[in-house]
């Protein structure tokens, strides 16, 4: 933390919090240098609460009511959608950044669904702060699902693919 706290630092932190909210981010880290041996390290994190519900009984048919959000339907006996992040073969994002499935635009992707991978093999790239970070396969196996789309932003811990 900076040796001298100023109103400018407080305004800077408030601006970072606004950026966090406006861009639907959950975490933001910045280091502000003031000079030799004087800097301000800031990490702003937003708490995200995820609520899941499980239906065990059939729902009686009721007349449809107008909805303002996306429609969700439940069918008796239908399996509840699984959370890919909880899958034992999930490869999750180790950082916030942008996912790239190929080394360069227009080239073949590192892996496709059905590809056999070895432990340590690069399966995708995450760009964070202009640095291309190769993400290795944590285990050998077959790629069953690719959950991230090329060129899209991802959050820390977001499921990227399933390797079984």
TrEMBL record:
Entry keyword annotation includes Lipid biosynthesis: yes
Pfam families the record matches: Biotin_lipoyl (PF00364)
Pathway annotation: Lipid metabolism; fatty acid biosynthesis
SUPFAM superfamilies recorded: Single hybrid motif
Biological process terms in GO annotation: fatty acid biosynthetic process
Domain Lipoyl-binding, residue spans: 88-164
Keywords attached to this entry: Biotin, Fatty acid biosynthesis, Fatty acid metabolism, Lipid biosynthesis, Lipid metabolism
CDD domains, per database record: biotinyl_domain (cd06850)
Any GO MF annotation of the entry: acetyl-CoA carboxylase activity
Gene Ontology CC entries for this record: acetyl-CoA carboxylase complex
Function: This protein is a component of the acetyl coenzyme A carboxylase complex; first, biotin carboxylase catalyzes the carboxylation of the carrier protein and then the transcarboxylase transfers the carboxyl group to form malonyl-CoA.
NCBIfam families: BCCP (TIGR00531)
Descriptive protein name: Biotin carboxyl carrier protein of acetyl-CoA carboxylase
Primary gene name: accB
């Amino acid at each position: 933390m900076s040796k001298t706290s100023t109103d400018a630092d407080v305004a800077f932190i408030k601006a970072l919090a606004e950026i966090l909210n406006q861009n639907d981010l959950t975490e933001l880290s910045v280091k502000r240098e003031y000079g030799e041996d004087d800097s301000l390290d800031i990490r702003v994190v937003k708490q995200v609460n995820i609520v899941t519900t499980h239906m065990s009984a059939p729902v009686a048919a009721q007349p449809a009511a107008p909805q303002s959000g996306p429609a969700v339907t439940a069918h008796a006996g239908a399996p509840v959608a699984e959370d890919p992040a909880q899958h034992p073969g999930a490869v999750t994002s180790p950082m916030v950044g942008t996912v790239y499935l190929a080394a360069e635009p227009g080239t073949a992707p590192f892996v496709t669904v059905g590809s056999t991978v070895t432990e340590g093999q690069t399966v995708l790239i995450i760009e964070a702060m202009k640095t291309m970070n190769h993400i290795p396969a944590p285990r050998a196996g077959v790629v069953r699902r690719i959950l991230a789309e090329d060129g899209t932003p991802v959050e820390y811990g977001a499921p990227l693919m399933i390797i079984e």
